Every structure is written in structure tokens, then in C-alpha cells.
Amino acid sequence: MLTIKNLHAEVDGKEILKGIDLEIRKGEVHAIMGPNGSGKSSLASVLAGRENYTVTQGEVNFDGKDLLELSPEDRAREGMFLAFQYPVEIPGVSNINFLKTALNEIRAYKGLPAMEAKEFLKLTKEKQQLVEFNANLMNRSLNEGFSGGEKKRNEILQLAMLDPKLGILDETDSGLDIDALRIVAGGVNKLRGPEKSFLVITHYQRLLDYIVPDFVHVLYNGRIVKTGTKELALELEEKGYDWLKEAEVHV
Amino acid sequence: MRNSNEIIDDIANKEYEYGFTTDIEMDIAPAGLDEDVIRFISAKKEEPEWLLEWRLKGYQAFKKMQLPKWQHFDMPEMDFQKVSYYAAPKKKKQLNSLDEVDPELLATFEKLGIPLNEQKALSGVAVDAVFDSVSVATTFKGKLKEMGVIFCSFGEAVREHPDLVKKYLGSVVPHSDNIFAALNAAVFSDGSFVYIPKGVRCPMELSTYFRINAQNTGQFERTLIIADDSSYVSYLEGCTAPMRDENQLHAAVVELVALDHAEIKYSTVQNWYPGDKDGKGGIYNFVTKRGICKGNSSKISWTQVETGSAITWKYPSVILQGDDAMGEFYSVAVTRNKQIADTGTKIYHLGRNTRSRIISKGISAGQGENTYRGLVQVGPRAHNARNFTQCDSLLIGNRCGAHTFPYIESRNKSATVEHEATTSKIGEDQIFYLNQRGIDTEKAVALIVNGYAKEVLNQLPMEFAVEAQKLLSITLEGSVG
């Protein structure tokens, strides 16, 4: 599904990813943990194709395609979805209009006709319930005046609607109280399946109590310094990240 | 991936869609302006003596006036002697029906998407088409006449309804109001005239479509709309011009009169040729628009979508004379390349309990300059007057400018005047977010801009709101910085 080999990237001339190797197979859930500034969110940005990141070395293969050659919109259309840490607000553009536009752009890329209004409404209703999204927010401007929890839930709703092959959750748990966290994680769990993979980026182990990963990777200073199963997350919770600094010396 | 500069270049090079010319035999007055030219125009139009005198008064005022200096741009030099003040498609005899209009002219309007053929016309819209200086066709006249609605060219109104014209001409915008209004009074060619009788709700949208075609001419049309007691009318104007290297002057005057309980809704979708990417050519759009809510509980609402012209200089205003009268101004102005827009409104609260609402949305891209200039004046008698102004600017790229000059003068303590202003940039974050959902950059900009302008676009009549949305998207295609 996603194969990252020796990925180096910089922003403003500063190297921020220093050789990442990662393989995510169909249906797998991988978690990336690490201290602040370790490059977690940068990895998400580079994968999604944010303009100010420059890839200097390495390759990324996404379901048979050279990901780095694709524009951000084509990456999305190929089935890569990034749930943003800070979703933007777009005044005057209703949530539903935005979702319809996005859905139909992706369908057009795949050679499918625009979705019929009736079918679209049915799909929206179904997915809304899945992620417990307040129907009143559908006609409001995209994320405008949404609470932090509503914004994050909206990200998961979009994920559900657009049905990607790979969902990247960039610190989706940040700023969520425990109830909101449970709902968001519950939504993701319902979307899990043999055809869908997830890359869950988080600072805290807490989220992984709800979304149980197949693999946990620890990112430190632009490199993956440790890979394990969900027990690694618990170990990190207990020990913190400081021991990594010592570990890094030996890598 | 394309970078921002490439995208900006794209938009700059995007050609103006309506830039063709029509080859047609014209009656053109020689360039220059003096009393003889004014007499020539008046004679050509077989006008009564009183109108000629009014024109000459306008000319006398014009001669004494200077170009204004307060606008937020360098006023280009204008040689009023180089312009021809009369150009009309040659016609051999009086036209009795649309079938007799020159097919070349009909084809031109067809090409612009303005079908003058009544069977094909947009349902519920009557159109008056003005080509260069002359009204060439008005649709649905008969149907409107049944209800007592007069909708015709200005020239025809002078002939058929002289009392109405005499009573209201210059009553809102006097012949000496400003230099461009004075010039218009002296040389105005044609335009549209509307009268809605007492108690009549005009059954269809009325629309005028202006087209400048001839070279070295200006266009000086005049529109006069009178809504009698308890009547209602919705009126729309649209305009285009060919691409030419020289600048052409458009100095129109619009006067609206709303009597007791009457309502006039006036919408403009302005798409004159804006000049090329280096700012060469384009229309100088210096227009005076003003309405008076003469009667109690009357209402005038201006909505404008301004995407064209090299320079736009216009401030559609409302005088709220009657008690409980209401004035509104909704505006979207877009500038790109080297376009300049200095636009806004003036609202004069004179009557008691008068209310006004101003929503202005400026969008600047490329090296465009966008200025909002507004005046809200509350007179001593205007007890409980209320105004709300919201004035937003959206910047695309980093070479454009947005400026706001709001003036508030209140002489009544019971008045409430509110002003809100914001400036924002289309953020890379917003674009990236939409990209990440599979929406390309062009569509993303269109989505953001239309969302931003929604409050104003919602004011347009249905058929035109869709057109305006498309126009905004096309105008700003690729303008991301």
C-alpha cells in the first residue's frame, strides 16, 4: 500500500526527515509516536504534498504509483487522506457543498459520473451517524465557528465520506476531551477494514487505547529509532522519550 | 507541480472572452466637444427644445469643472476633445419590430448570450439592448404595457412620455453634480427608461445590456427608473466591450426614484474590457448612480458585481428622504492585473427611522488595487436612524492592495451607526486543505472566493447569480499567490 524508502526532506533549508523507511500493508494500522519536533507532522505533510517541504532523497510508492510525482490533489484522488491537526475554516462554503465538490472531483478522476443528489444525501446521513456528527453542522460554513472537537469529528466524517485507501491522522487527539476522543476513535474503528490502512500520528499513548495499532514506530530527530507492537506505546508512556536520546547515540 | 508564479502568469494571460468587434455601418460624429456637437446629437435624436437647453446647461457646468483629486489612484489624463460623442448603427427607417433589427446586431448580442429574440429570451426577463450609444431593441414591451409598465429606450421616453422625463430627469443627479455627470448631461446618447405605475409589481426582471463597439467613442447612457406608490421593480444591467489598445470612457448616469412604499432593486454585473496584463487599454468606468427614497417606507437596494474595466469609479448612493425608508448596498469588486476599483456608496439619512445596510467585499489579485470608499451621513431630523456597514477585503498574492475609507457623519444623537471591517488573504493553508480533499487549485480559489462573496451574490436575481458566480471564477482563474 505505502512503501517509504530512505526519505529525506527539508523545510527552509533545514533537514527535518533524515531517512525514513516504512512499509504499511493493506488493512494495517501503524502508529507513529515521538516527542515534539521529532518530525511526525512533517512526515504527514510530506506525504500529502505540502508545498514548502522539499524532498531531497528517497522514494515513496503508494499503491503502485510514485507518490512524489503526484500533485497534492492527485494524491488525494488516488486515495490518500490526511486528517489535519489544525483543520482550516472556509467562510461562506457550506460543509455539504464542500463535501459534494470533493467527492465528485475524486469520482471524476476515477472516471465516475457525479453522484446523484439523492444518493449523496443518503451517504451523508449514513456517515454522519457513523461518526456521531451533528447534522446541524452540515449546512454551516466549513469549520467556521466549530469547536475543536467538532472540527476533528468533521475530519473523520470527511474520511468516511471520501473512503480513502490510506487515512493519515495527524495528532487527531490533540485538544480533545475524553468523550470526543472516544467518539473520534470509535469512528475510525468502524472504518477499519481489510482494504483500508491507517497511519496514526500521536504524541500520547492515550489514543492508542482506543485505536489499537498493529505496529508502533518511534520517530526521533527525523528517523524511526524503534519499531514494535502496541506494547511499545505503553513502554513509552511509562518511560517518556528521554531514554531515546541515549538510544540515538548508539544507532 | 506548478508554482504560484506560473499560476499568476496564467491568469494574467487569460484573454477577455468578449473582446470581439462587430463590423457594422455606423453613424459617427467627428471627435471633439463643443456646443455644435451637442446640438448635432440633439438634432439627430429629434429632441424637444427643453432637452437641448438642459444639455447645454450640463455642458456649461462641465466646462467649469476639474477632474476630481480625492480618489485613491492617479487620475489618467483624459482628452475630452479626442472622443467621438455619438456613434449609432446606421438604420434606414424606424424599426417596428425585432425582425427589422440588423441581423449582424442580433448576432452580436446572441454571441454575448443576450438573446433578443423573445421566444428564446430568459424566461421572466425583459431586455433593452444598447449598442454603442443607441438602444437597438427592447423585448417584451407589449406584455409589460398591458400592466402599465413603461420600459423603453430613453429616446423613446422623451418622445412618448415627455412629462415624466421632464419631471424626473436630473432630479436625483443634477446636471452639475460632478464632471462626469455634467459631461453625461451634455452628450448622453440613449439608455433605458422605466416607469412602474402605482400598486404594480413588475412581473419580470427588467434588464439593460450595454455594448461598446465603435473605436474612439465613449458611451454615455442614462437610466431613469421611477417606481410609483407601492410598486416594485427589479432591474439588472450588464455590459461588455471589445479589446482595444486605447482606453475608452464610459460615463453613465443612473437615477432612481422610489415613491411611497415603493421598492427598487438595481443589480449590476459589470464586465467591461479590463485592459491587458500590462494595464494597456480597457474601459474607464466613471459612473454616477444615485437613488432617492422619496416616499415613506420606500426602499432602494443596489447590488453590484464589478469584475471589468481598467478603472472603476462609482459610488451608487441612496438618499433616504422619506420616513422609515431603507437603503442597501451590496458589492463585490474584483481587481486583477493592473485594474483599479475605487468604489463604495453614500447613504444620506434624512427621514426618521431610516435604515441602511452596506456589505462590501473587495477582492484583489495580481497588481490590482481595490478601494472601498463610503459615506454614511445622518441628518438632524433622522431620529432613530440605523446603519450597519461591513467592509471586507480579500487579498490574493502579495502584489495587490486593499484600502478602506469609511466616512461617518452623524448629526442626530439617537442614530446608531456600526462599521465592521476585515482584511484576509486566501491562505496557502486553505488551498492545501482543499487540494488534500481532491480539489485542484483553480476550483479551490473559485470555491473560496464564491464563499467569501456569497452574501452579496445571494442578493442577485436567481438567473444572474449563477452567471455572476461563473464570472467570478473565470475572472480569478489561477490567481493564487
Automatic annotation (TrEMBL), chain A:
The keyword Oxidoreductase does not apply. Coiled coil: none annotated. SUPFAM superfamilies: P-loop containing nucleoside triphosphate hydrolases. Keywords: ATP-binding, Nucleotide-binding. Residues 2-246 form the ABC transporter domain. InterPro entries: AAA+_ATPase, ABC_transporter-like_ATP-bd, ABC_transporter-like_CS, FeS-cluster_ATPase_SufC, P-loop_NTPase. Belongs to the ABC transporter superfamily. Ycf16 family. PANTHER family: ABC TRANSPORTER I FAMILY MEMBER 6, CHLOROPLASTIC. This is Iron-regulated ABC transporter ATPase subunit SufC. The lineage of its organism: Bacteria, Pseudomonadati, Bacteroidota, Chitinophagia, Chitinophagales.
